[in-house]
Amino acid sequence: MPNLVVDFDTLLTLSGKDLGTTDYRQITQEQINLFADATDDHQWIHTDPERAKDGPFGAPIAHGFLTLSLIIPFWGELFDVEGVTTKVNYGLDKVRFTSPVTVGSKVRMQAAIAEVTEVKGGAQIKVNATIEIEGQERPAVVAEFLARFYK
């Protein structure tokens, strides 16, 4: 169950609302390998643990887009809107991969609703999303996530 569940009318009032932080999820080599298979990106820094030990990060790292894709399950932990007919991931703005995520790391997301805008038939929200790495100061991903909710 998400931390915050609201109806459509309440959604329109949430500009500036801090949604808090999710639980941590551990990044596994299996996840990285599955993502490599799904995207046909088998670069050794992701999929060859032995070679990656001697690479620039000392271990395999998650694909940046794998880490970014975690916005969706993390989002489900934080927020939902009831009483709408359709929910759409509308896009991303200003995405930055600011720190690599090594295999075995734990990540979580902190999010806040930056802006709510009415659109034809619904509302669009812009969410400031930061995917943090446990024990590290620099986050893995900083992005503006856009979602739409239609009545």
From TrEMBL:
The lineage of its organism: Bacteria, Bacillati, Actinomycetota, Actinomycetes, Micrococcales. Residues 16-130 form the MaoC-like domain. SUPFAM superfamilies: Thioesterase/thiol ester dehydrase-isomerase. It comes from Pseudarthrobacter enclensis. Pfam families: MaoC_dehydratas (PF01575). Belongs to the enoyl-CoA hydratase/isomerase family. It comes from the Bacteria. This is Acyl dehydratase.
